[in-house]
Structures are given as structure tokens and as C-alpha cells.
Design goal:
single chain; about 55 residues
């Protein structure tokens, strides 16, 4: 009985660690997507500025 309890605790500990790793990876991915979106917005703004310059020629 005691060994089963230890095994269960080790299994739960492993699951918690795996969950923590996946959560960190997910948070990193979300941050990278937000950075990409910000870059895309900046590029769109620069393209609009170029288009306005070209139209003014």
C-alpha cells in the first residue's frame, strides 16, 4: 500500500512537471505570436507610407 502511494505521488509529480513545461512552452509561443503580429503591423504601416510617397510622385 505504501509503495503504491509513493508511485502515485511520483506519477503526479511527473505530470505536474510536464504540465509546467508545456505551460512555459505555450507562454513562449504566445509571446512570439504577439511579437510577430506587432512586426506585421509595423510593416503594414511602412508599406502604407511608401504607397503614399509613390502616389505623391
Amino acid at each position: 500500500m505504501e509503495n503504491e502511494l509513493i508511485d502515485m505521488r511520483l506519477a503526479v509529480s511527473g505530470l505536474l512537471e510536464t504540465t509546467a513545461v508545456h505551460q512555459r512552452n505555450f507562454n513562449t509561443l504566445v509571446m512570439e505570436i504577439r511579437n510577430m503580429r506587432a512586426d506585421m503591423v509595423q510593416i503594414q504601416s511602412e508599406i502604407r507610407g511608401i504607397q503614399m510617397d509613390v502616389q505623391g510622385l
